[in-house]
Amino acid sequence: MSILDAPVVEVADTDDLSVWPRSTRHAPGGDLTVGGVSLAEAADRFGTPVYVLDEHEVREHCRAYRTAFPEAEVVYAAKAFLCRAMAHWVEEEGLGLDVCSAGELALAVTTGFPPERIVLHGNAKSPEDLSTALRLGVGRIVVDSASEIARLAALTPAGSRQKVMVRVVPGVAAGVHVKVRTGTDDQKFGLSITDGSAQHAVTRILDQPHLELVGLHCHIGSQITTPKPYVAAVRRMVGLLARIRDQHGVALPQLDIGGGHGIAYRPSEEELNIAVLAGRVRTELEDGCARGGLPVPRLTLEPGRAIVGPAGVVVYRVLAVKRTGDRTFVAVDGGMSDNPRPALYGVRYAPRLIGRPASAPPRPVTVVGRHCEAGDVLADEVALPGDVRPGDLLAVPAAGAYHLSMASGYNLVGRPPVVAVADGIARVLVRRESLEDMSRRDVGL
Prior knowledge:
By secondary structure, the protein is an alpha/beta fold. About 30% of the residues lie in helices and about 25% in strands. Strands 4, 14, 15, 16, 17, 18, 19, 20 and 21 form a nine-stranded mixed β-sheet that branches. The N and C termini lie far apart (about 55 Å).
């Protein structure tokens, strides 16, 4: 292969910690510390793979949102990552919670999270999801289909009213990959403005004595790094609010514009500027309501990845290094069972050798997982020291969101633990899944 045919490899600055938790520091021997805890020591103590989550960083992101949106309701999207400690942290920081299932809802409420500050989502909520939400007193349920209206109305106890919102498809395309664009008519979520489905749902809900329509909801996509599509969505949603007011004489008091705020996974990538987003959205909302003669509804937004993603690091141990054809493969002890995102969306990460100094110049390698799939690739064509070898540790930043929450039991490889770090102390939040855990579910022959 000539130099002209060689793959382009981004060589990361070994001192560039811009996408790592803010508490990350260089340590002797090529190590890094996060929250005052050595990543190499965490790997030795808790085993690998291990997810390390900086508690202070999570809390700082919660506070940053409350500062940027002081008049709004900030609701953490639990699908990014949820455990009892995470629910406790966001509740203490004054955020609400957005859940997508009876399981997420029950975990949060049994942890002590106030159910009235919880929003239930989902394009296909089961009867169990809805009945659990009603039984536990969830604050709002986001209606996603016409059939859900009758089902929810029938389940709501006599003498009570459940607050609901309508998930609207505003016709705004946003997101880095087609599989995470949720604001257009060609996907499974929501009710369309274009074909009148959203307006029809509003009419049906207003006719239900057990349902109280409190607002509209939209979510346009994920990993969005510019305010422009949010501004467009707000403009269209305000237009629908005005039409509802004109048709039904009702000024809905709430508007939820979802989340999807993008973060940087590699030093070269952009992230959404939350302060700029707040200013642009606030201006559009106030101006649009003034033009339409509407009272300004209370804004709700649902960040998930942007709160927990940058706070997480995953540490793997190298199991094998081999050269096949023109490529060098570095295989680690995790993979698509604990992070399916590269296989699903082609996401790229920036792994780094830790635990010893690099003693050779970088070379292009492909970091792969241990699973029996050719697509089990964690980082394609990245630069690592040329002497990387079995037993080495690789750490991957920006790993707090949509890793373990999307993890599987593929090949019966247990899911890794989650370890919280703060002020030099590490503690297990979620223990490692054992073979005994997995075998316990297998009850018959």
